[in-house]
Design brief:
The complex is a heterodimer of chains A (425) and B (398). Chain A is an alpha/beta fold. Chain A contains 19 helices and twelve strands. Chain B has two domains: 288 residues, 7-stranded beta/alpha barrel; 91 residues. In chain B, helix 1 runs parallel beside helix 3, helix 2 packs across helix 3 and helix 9 crosses helix 10. Classes of the chains: A alpha/beta (425), B alpha/beta (398). Chains A and B meet through helix 12, helix 17 and helix 18 of A and helix 13 and helix 18 of B.
């Protein structure tokens, strides 16, 4: 399995999802996991993302403990490259430890290649070269061919998956947590799209995290629908305690990267409308991204500054604290393959107002849903949740019931069935 | 000599238009005029007009031996007055035959009995006046909204002077006994209970077109045969159902109108059987026993309780909120405001908020024009919020 680093410092939902899946699957299948590695202190060096400096090394280590690799039960190899599927994060990739790499892989790979890439000026411009290197090293790690299935999570690992399939002849399963068409628009046909499509054409089976994403794959990548299956992400049960806040204002929470895909412009538009009919509310924005500054400035320009709190990137513990106090969870995503944080909100009994264009909308029916651009409807829903308390309670109760079916065990059942199908064909 | 007693419910609510939070304080028109008109047109074409015509012919054909009963809600009559006076006229034609009895109910088809006896009485009186106005009858038989019933309801109706009240025939109360007899509630021997034979009624109303049903297809002669089998163990076979069974719930293609056309003749093939109105049944047959119902029952869903309107917190909250406004609303003395408030008491508004079977999709969904019970609740509460501000303004200006 080709996957992602934990804790999800840059990965977001993808890191959590892969971790959950591997943990559940390793009880029923033998997994060899290849993930990129980075040393935590290096994640912070040379990084100047707004809000990120609020996170301490201690917090990162604590999170790493929560997502511990030994607990996974899988056989893990690490490639010391800091790789992220998110464009923004790639722009600020930190240095890696060349020494550590040399120790690990002394007799494999071309060290000189590694040097030149890591010492390059523009880290992002080298992303495709980094993938090339990752692919090469992953293929070397898989050279013994001692496995039945190759399972690759998201675009950065796809070329690795394709190469390993070519060299081993074993079947390839792609796991789509996100698509370039989500990130950069439906009409986009850039290099990453091409990479995704080529892999999809070669793969034996494609798994998407929602029916919504499955439709995107069929429509925008022109893949045979019979080749694409849906396995909804699960969520680990977590102890959650509601903390009623003493603030005079109600709290509407937006959790996610501030990037076009997550709909921050619709957040602002909706907030404006809500404040016209319900002034005693604050909008908390937890996350950062390429649209962070733009969002901040727009809110100030519209004189909403006093009603918005930009918390920046928060650790899991802080996110949980926020959710325990939130009155409404708001997710106006333009295109959301799944939306794990909506489920986290449900765990904390926070009623959700979410975009119909999301995977979460299909698994949690007891949410208030609208098309991503329908800010009038969003505002009507948020107003209703803030004003009519019975609505909050009923939604929260019913949504929690729906979580029961969304376990990693359940997801594992489906994945293993898909493996069987693929192997037997 | 057993009788068949046919009763049909006719009801249309004043459905609310989409009313978001931005309308609060600005838009005083709550009714979705277009939708209500459209639905009335559709139901009139598929059900009211063809069914009325069929029944009128049957009454004439059977020369006074075919009798039926209706209860038409005040909100339905009002909509007919506004949008389809021709349909109202066709009911009046039926009234003129002398073979059709009109029953009494709450004008706004509400659950007011549970929340405000004062409002309940007001609505019943208002409904009586409407029935007198259009059909020239003074109803003697009462039926509460959706046959919501218990001993208290029966007693209260008895005290109001009604000779009989309709209710669901519950197995749990009847035990080994049959619903095909006249009963009376405990502690009140003045009023009589007519119990719905739910098995035979639902055979027509729900199972008629179900191809998976063992008895499909149901012909009039087969049904008459079942009715005839009750001879010796029944005096009145009470077939109570929604009038929309004929043409709306059971589409014409199912043969429901053919069934109806042949039914009187088939029933009367057995010389002992006849058709009577509820009043006639009560006049003819003696009480056979006591029908003791403590907990509120209804004819809705499999549960036959109040869960269709009061099954979740949203419904309770909305119901409680609207009734809490009663005193302020009536204090304004403004007929228009009182009417707007009363229309919000119609049971349908709460029915739309039912979450019982929502995920599965079923009967409730068919009747609801909302995407979800949450949408129904939110829309309703926004309207109520506006009504509250209307009342405040009225109070200030006084």
């Amino acid at each position: 399995m080709l996957g992602w680093e934990f804790p999800p410092l840059f990965s977001g939902g993808l890191g959590i999802a892969t971790y959950g899946m591997v943990k559940a699957m390793s009880k029923r299948a033998k997994i060899r996991l290849v993930i990129p590695n980075s040393v935590p202190s290096n994640d912070l060096e040379d990084v100047s993302i707004q809000g990120l400096n609020k996170i301490t090394l201690e917090e990162i280590n604590l999170e790493r403990l929560a997502y511990s690799l030994p607990a996974l039960g899988a056989d893990v190899s690490r490639i010391p490259i800091t790789l992220s599927p998110y464009h923004f994060a790639n722009q600020k990739i930190s240095k890696s430890t060349i020494n550590e790499f040399e120790l690990l892989q002394a007799n494999k790979g071309e060290v000189s290649d590694v040097h030149s890439i890591f010492q390059g000026e523009d880290a992002y411009a080298n992303i495709l070269q980094k993938i090339h290197l990752y692919t090469h090293l992953a293929a070397q790690l898989a050279a013994d061919g001692d496995f039945d299935i190759i399972h690759a999570h998201d675009w950065v690992t796809y070329p690795g998956g394709v190469k390993i399939k070519a060299q081993s002849g074993k079947p390839l399963v792609l796991h789509v947590h996100a698509l370039e068409t989500d990130r950069s628009g439906e009409a986009c046909r850039n290099g990453i799209y091409q990479l995704e499509k080529e892999a999809m054409d070669v793969a034996d089976k494609i798994i998407t995290v929602s029916e919504y994403t499955r439709q995107q794959v069929v429509q925008h990548y022109h893949i045979d629908p019979a080749k694409v299956g849906v396995v909804h992400n699960g969520i680990d049960p977590a102890p959650t305690i509601r903390k009623e806040h003493k603030l005079k204002d109600k709290l509407v929470v937006f959790l996610g990267r501030l990037t076009h895909q997550k709909g921050p412009e619709f957040l602002i538009e909706t907030a404006e409308k809500v404040l016209r009919v319900y002034p005693r509310v604050k909008f908390i924005v937890a996350g950062t991204g390429d649209l962070f500054v733009h969002t901040l400035e727009t809110s100030a320009y519209k004189n909403l500054g006093g009603k918005f709190i930009f918390a920046g990137f928060l650790s899991k513990a802080k996110v949980n604290e926020l959710l325990s106090m939130a009155d409404v969870y708001f997710m106006p995503s333009v295109s959301e393959p799944f939306g794990l944080s909506a489920l986290e909100a449900v765990q904390f009994r926070v009623p959700g107002v979410i975009s119909k264009q999301s995977g979460a909308a299909e698994v949690i029916k007891h949410t208030l849903q609208a098309d991503f651009w329908d800010t009038d409807k969003y505002a009507n829903y948020i107003h209703a949740l803030l004003k009519y308390s019975a609505l909050k309670t009923v939604l929260a109760d019913n949504a929690q019931c729906e979580l029961r079916g969304l376990t990693w065990e359940h997801a594992t059942d489906k994945v293993l069935r898909i493996y069987d199908d693929v192997i037997n064909n | 000599m057993p009788s068949v007693c046919l009763y049909f419910q006719v009801h249309q609510p004043f459905r609310l238009k989409p009313y978001d939070c931005f309308k609060i304080g600005y838009d005083r028109l709550y009714e979705d005029v277009d939708r209500n008109r459209e639905i009335l047109d559709r139901v009139s074409a598929k059900c009211y007009l063809p069914a009325n015509e069929t029944l009128l012919h049957l009454i004439q054909e059977q020369q006074g031996e075919f009798k039926i009963a209706y209860s038409i809600s005040g909100t339905a009559i009002e909509q007919m007055e506004k949008y389809r006076p021709d349909v109202l006229k066709s009911f009046q034609e039926l009234a003129k035959t002398g073979c059709v009895e009109f029953l009494s109910e709450t004008y706004y088809h509400s659950l007011s009995f549970l929340y405000s006896k004062e409002e309940f009485i007001r609505q019943v009186v208002k409904h009586k006046e409407k029935i007198k106005e259009h059909f020239g009858q003074s109803p003697q038989v009462f039926r509460n909204t959706e046959l919501i019933y218990n001993n208290e309801v029966a007693s209260f109706a008895g005290d109001m002077g009604y000779t009989a009240i309709l209710c669901e025939g519950l197995d749990s109360v009847l035990g080994y006994r049959s619903p095909n007899f006249v009963y009376h509630p405990p502690h009140n021997s003045a009023i009589r209970c007519l119990l719905k034979n739910y098995k035979l009624s639902d055979d027509i109303a729900f199972r008629f077109s179900n191809k998976d049903w063992s008895e499909w297809p149901l012909t009039a002669s087969k049904f008459a045969h079942w009715v005839h089998r009750t001879a010796g163990n029944g005096e009145t076979i009470n077939l109570f159902m929604d009038y929309e069974t004929f043409g709306e719930h059971q589409w014409p293609e199912t043969g429901i109108f053919e069934f109806l056309k042949h039914l009187p003749r088939e029933i009367r093939k057995h010389p002992d059987f006849n058709f009577l109105t509820p009043s006639e049944v009560v006049g003819k047959y003696d009480v056979k026993g006591e029908y003791d119902v403590h907990h509120l029952s209804s004819w809705a869903d499999i549960d036959r309780d109040l869960s269709a309107w009061l099954g979740n917190s949203l419904q309770h909250d909305a119901m409680q909120r609207i009734y809490s406004l009663e005193n302020q609303i009536k204090a304004t003395g403004d007929e228009e405001i009182i009417n707007e408030w009363a229309r919000l008491l119609t049971s349908d508004h709460f029915y739309y908020m039912c979450t019982k079977y929502w995920s599965d999709g079923d009967v409730h969904k068919y009747f609801s024009h909302y995407d979800s019970p949450y949408d129904a609740y939110i829309n309703y509460m926004n309207v109520v919020t506006d009504l509250e501000s209307v009342v405040e303004e009225a109070v200030i200006s006084q």
